[in-house]
Predict the structure.
Amino acid sequence: MKPVKIETCPYCGGKDLIGGYGIQSISSSDKIATRRLLGDLEYTVCSDCGSIVHIGAINLEKLIAGNKAAG
Ligand SMILES: [Zn+2]
């Protein structure tokens, strides 16, 4: 996985970016729920304007494997 480097908020120009974690929860259907663990997300949030500057998948390899398995 290539590293993502973000130093400035593209929305307000702020440079104070903080990290946060979340879990993707779009639907309660079994199919989505099964994939929820694979969809853990890492957020980069601008502390000046609150915009989510970047969202990355934490378990990228598992996510890719899961998608291949699902066809
Ligand atoms: Zn900002």
The chain is about 25% helix and 30% strand. Residues 9, 11-12, 14, 46, 48-49, 51 surround zinc ion (CB under 6 Å).
